[in-house]
Please model this.
Amino acid sequence: MRKLALLALVLTASAAPAQPAPKPAAPKSLWVDWKTLARDSVAAEAKGAKPDVSRERELQAEADARGKLVGELVTSGDCANGERIAREAGDFALVRAARDYCAAKIR
Model:
């Protein structure tokens, strides 16, 4: 009886037609139209939020204060702390300026 049930199971499994795997959709093109993509991105950004002028002024004031502090530290000879403050703020132009000033001072 067991053999018959197993045989029936094998026969029904093999009788069912196998479903072919669906093929992925072919891309329209192998190349990306970067000009159109950039234009669409700029248009989407333009539709978004307007720039916050007060926030821009606040950020500029912070950058000015940080630049003044780093300048004072570097000119007083504390190049390591001046560079550290600029690096922590992510102001790499200020880091470069501090390094250049300190390098010229050492020569």
